[in-house]
Structure formats: structure tokens, C-alpha cells
From TrEMBL:
Keywords: Acyltransferase, Lipoyl, Pyruvate, Transferase
Subunit and interaction comment: Forms a 24-polypeptide structural core with octahedral symmetry.
Compositional bias (Basic and acidic residues): 82-94
One annotated GO molecular function: lipoic acid binding
Uppermost EC category: transferase
Family per record: Belongs to the 2-oxoacid dehydrogenase family.
Record GO cellular component, one term: cytoplasm
InterPro entries: 2-oxoA_DH_lipoyl-BS (IPR003016), 2-oxoacid_DH_actylTfrase (IPR001078), 2-oxoacid_DH_E2_comp (IPR050743), Biotin_lipoyl (IPR000089), CAT-like_dom_sf (IPR023213), E3-bd_dom_sf (IPR036625), PSBD (IPR004167), Single_hybrid_motif (IPR011053)
Enzyme Commission (EC) number: 2.3.1.-
Residue span(s) of domain Lipoyl-binding: 4-79
Annotated Peripheral subunit-binding (PSBD) domain residues: 162-199
Name under which the protein is recorded: Dihydrolipoamide acetyltransferase component of pyruvate dehydrogenase complex
Region entry Disordered, spans: 81-137, 221-263
Length: 469
């Protein structure tokens, strides 16, 4: 009987518990070479290509596009080519990924259908072939490096199209046929902007016209299309009366749901976990006040001024520029100010870190923020830049809202929220004036800081914002 090896999903980030299958680059029965792209996976950090750990035949795929695979669970089964040099026999990269303990999986069990409708269980285990127990040797993941190392994604040529995994994921989301997109990148690589342009002008819509031939070996698995929430099936239009001419009655939510349930994936899935942890661990208290910007001279960069004010407040009251360990009841005060800046996207919330904000001038702050936002938008931001900040800023006022109770994410102690600017009537000596003001909300973990420290921090922040320039 052929020697079947099971490849288990490695940790694609810093201890991430799972990842979502975006796209398989092969199907069961295909031959694949060592380090060739096996599939694209989306994590809370990025979209990455997972390389094949073997040269040989793909026997089974554990999951379809859209399925969530837990780290350490089976991803694919292979029949290695006995005549090819495999990585395990050639050189080790030091990144071995075996199954989780405490479970068994039978390779001889029925394989999934062509849709790959098998979702990996919570457990991995020993691999059995022909009824003979065999301890899994662990699998080396090609050139992939996990942990704190930054992944540098290369454009892979799949189906005759050169593109990085994040571009392929965006094309799938925007329903753009990559084979019809005109590449503008070096060496014919399709860029993020190429996909956005094609989506905007409709020049490469899926199914719009026959695309150029794709080799059979580059088959894709497509997830079934679900109706959009709130949309009636084709040929049926919603209206105020039924076909019988009577008023339409809707059922309460407890009787029947009107939309399709959607499992959270990638960034939103991670956001849900982080917010739940924050709610369970932090004792939040919020102070609010208004920063008076009437004294500002000329046009100024509001975000840069907010960053500067936070730095000034951190220097005045270091207790809020800290990490708190609730389990050991210990506090770490930081000499530097690394500010986590909340960036809202369609995929969910990212919080990249603006490093060493205390030594940057206004131009340096603006350049750093622009770089971080660009990296977030094209999903190229390194995982290391999405953690380790010492205090946070949420500039929600650029959309709407005056005050808020922003969430403190452990181990940080505080987060500043900036609301929407307004022109308010202000009482001054001898009369009234109209001043431009910015609502400020400060949420802090009351386990780590006192109310007095928080109030002094807020005052220092407001005082800096009130300065002319």
C-alpha cells in the first residue's frame, strides 16, 4: 500500500488558533512539487500561500474554500513520490508541525467529494495506513517560517496569472476574474490596484466572457453561493401585499431568520476573540471632556496633534503608558510610546503600532501613519506591527460620534477616543464665543491606574491640544 502522509496546518502567525481556506491551488489526484503553492489561507494577520511539503500526488484535501481549519488539524494528505528528493530527507528548516495530541484519524476513511466538503476537526492525531499504527514524523513546511519572523510573500504563477495571495483573495471578494485583468506590476504581476480598477470598471467580472484557457491541473474548488440577506429568490419580489392581495406578515426572529448565518473568519474572527477577552479581563472606566482648539494657528494635522498630545500625557502620567498583568498583578511602565492606531476596514479592525511616537515630529508621524494604512489596506503589514503597542488611539470622529467607551485590549492600560469636531458656544469672560472643539474619551483599566492618574492624564492631553501649534 502506498505510503500516505498527512500534512497538518502549521501556525501561520504568532500562536493563531486557526486559518480560513481562501483557495486551493490543486485538487485531489493532482501532482504537485515540493514548495509549490498548495492553498491560500487567511489569518487574522494576512493572506498567505501554504507551500506543499512534498513532491507527489495529492490524495485528499481537508476542507473547502471558506472552511476554517484549526492550527494542528489535518490540511491535506499526500502520496509522496518515492523517486523524488523530499525535504525531510534533504534539509530541515526547523519548523515541524505534527498533529494535536489525543486523537486518531484514519487515512483509509472515505475521501470527500470534489467540493472537498470536509471540515477539519478540533483534533489531529496518529495516521493509520492499512490497519498498522504509524507514528507521524511531523511535517516540514517548505520555506514557510512561523513565529515572529515576517513573511515576505512572493507572486506565484497559478493558472497562468502571477499574483500574491492577498491579491487573489481580493479578486475573489470583488468577483474579479484574474485571468482577464491586465497586469501592471513588474514581470507581469497583477497588483492590488489592478484588481480594484478591474472591479470599478467591470472589465474582468466573473462570468462576463470566456477567459483564456486554464490548465486542468489548476482546478479550483468553489464554495456554494448563498443568497444575500434581504434579497428574495429570482422571480419573486418583496412587496407590502401577498399574491392573494393580503398584507404580508413577517415572523419574529424566534420563528424564522430572514438572512443567512455567516461564520466570522480572518480578521473579524480574531477581533471577536480579542474583544471577548478584553471584556472578561479588564475593569474599564471612562472619562470624557472636550479639547478646545480655538487657539490653533493655521491649518494643522489633527491626527499628528492627537499623537503629540498623547505622548505629552504619557510623559506627564506614565501610569497609563503601561502593560498590566492581571494574573500576577504586575505592571510594566514603558519608556517609549508606541501607539496602536485603530484602522477600520471592510474585513474588520486592524490596530497597527506607530512605533516610537515620542521621537517623531509631525512629518514623521504622518509618513508612518500613511505607511501603516497602506500596508493594512493591501494586507501586507507584518504580524509584528499589529502587536506590542503601549497605548491606543481610536479616531472614530472622522466618521461620526462625539463620545464613546473604547475598549482597552490587554495588556495595555488605556485607550484614547477622539470624537467628531464641532463648533460650540463657549462662555468667556465678558461674553460668549464660538470655538472649535474635539470631544475626547479616555477609557482606562481601573485595576492598573487610579481615577486621579487618569484625570491628570486627560488634563495633560487637553492642555497640549489647546496649544497654538
Amino acid at each position: 500500500m502506498a505510503d500516505i502522509k498527512t500534512f497538518y496546518l502549521p501556525d501561520l502567525g504568532e500562536g493563531l488558533p486557526d486559518a480560513t481556506v481562501v483557495e486551493w491551488h490543486v485538487k485531489a489526484g493532482d501532482s504537485i512539487k515540493l514548495d509549490a503553492p498548495l492553498c491560500s489561507m487567511e489569518t487574522a494577520k494576512a493572506v498567505v500561500d501554504v507551500p506543499s511539503p512534498y513532491t507527489g500526488k495529492v490524495v485528499k484535501l481537508h476542507g473547502a474554500p471558506g472552511d476554517i481549519i484549526e492550527t494542528g488539524a489535518a490540511l491535506a494528505d499526500f502520496e509522496p513520490d518515492p523517486n523524488a528528493k523530499q525535504r525531510a530527507e534533504a534539509e530541515a528548516t526547523g519548523h515541524h508541525h505534527g498533529p494535536k495530541k489525543g486523537a486518531e484519524r484514519s487515512v483509509g476513511s472515505p475521501a470527500p467529494d470534489d467540493a472537498g466538503n470536509v471540515i477539519a476537526s478540533d483534533e489531529g492525531g496518529e495516521v493509520q495506513t492499512g490497519g498498522t499504527d504509524r507514528e507521524d514524523e511531523g511535517t516540514v513546511v517548505g520555506a514557510m517560517v512561523s513565529g515572529n519572523t515576517v513573511h515576505v510573500e512572493q507572486a506565484a504563477s497559478i493558472g497562468g496569472v502571477k499574483a500574491v495571495p492577498a491579491v487573489r483573495a481580493l479578486a475573489k471578494k470583488l468577483k474579479v476574474d484574474l485571468t482577464r485583468v491586465r497586469p501592471s506590476g513588474a514581470d507581469g504581476v497583477v497588483t492590488m490596484q489592478d484588481v480594484k480598477n478591474a472591479a470599478a470598471n467591470g472589465s474582468a467580472a466573473l462570468g462576463a466572457a470566456p477567459a483564456r484557457a486554464v490548465p486542468a491541473s489548476a482546478g479550483r474548488h468553489l464554495a456554494p453561493e448563498l443568497p444575500q440577506p434581504g434579497h428574495a429568490p429570482q422571480g419573486q419580489q418583496r412587496g407590502p401585499v401577498s399574491l392573494a392581495g393580503k398584507p404580508v406578515r413577517t415572523a419574529p426572529p424566534s420563528v424564522q431568520a430572514s438572512g443567512q448565518p455567516e461564520q466570522l473568519k480572518g480578521v473579524r474572527r480574531n477581533m471577536a476573540r480579542v474583544m471577548a477577552d478584553a471584556h472578561a479581563q479588564v475593569v474599564p472606566t471612562t472619562l470624557v471632556d472636550d479639547a478646545d482648539l480655538h487657539g490653533w494657528i493655521g491649518k494643522q494635522d489633527i491626527t499628528a496633534r492627537l499623537i503629540r498630545a498623547i505622548v505629552a500625557a504619557c510623559k506627564t502620567v506614565p501610569a497609563l503608558n503601561a502593560w498590566f498583568d492581571g494574573k500576577n498583578l504586575s505592571r510594566t511602565l514603558h519608556p517609549q510610546v508606541d501607539i496602536g492606531i485603530a484602522v477600520d476596514t471592510d474585513d474588520g479592525l486592524f490596530v497597527p503600532a506607530l512605533r516610537n511616537a515620542d521621537v517623531l515630529d509631525a512629518a514623521g508621524v504622518r509618513a508612518a501613519i500613511k505607511r501603516l494604512r497602506t500596508q493594512v489596506e493591501d494586507r501586507s503589514i507584518p504580524a509584528s506591527e499589529l502587536s506590542g503597542y503601549t497605548i491606543s488611539l481610536s479616531n472614530f470622529g472622522m466618521f461620526a460620534g462625539r463620545y464613546a467607551t473604547p475598549v482597552v485590549v490587554p495588556p495595555t492600560v488605556a485607550i484614547v477616543g477622539a470624537g467628531k469636531l464641532s463648533h460650540d458656544v463657549v462662555a468667556v469672560i465678558g461674553g460668549i464665543e464660538v470655538h472649535r472643539r474635539m470631544p475626547i474619551s479616555l477609557t482606562f483599566d481601573h485595576r492598573a491606574a487610579t481615577g486621579g492618574e487618569a484625570a491628570r492624564f486627560l488634563k495633560a492631553l487637553l492642555d497640549d491640544l489647546a496649544l497654538p501649534n
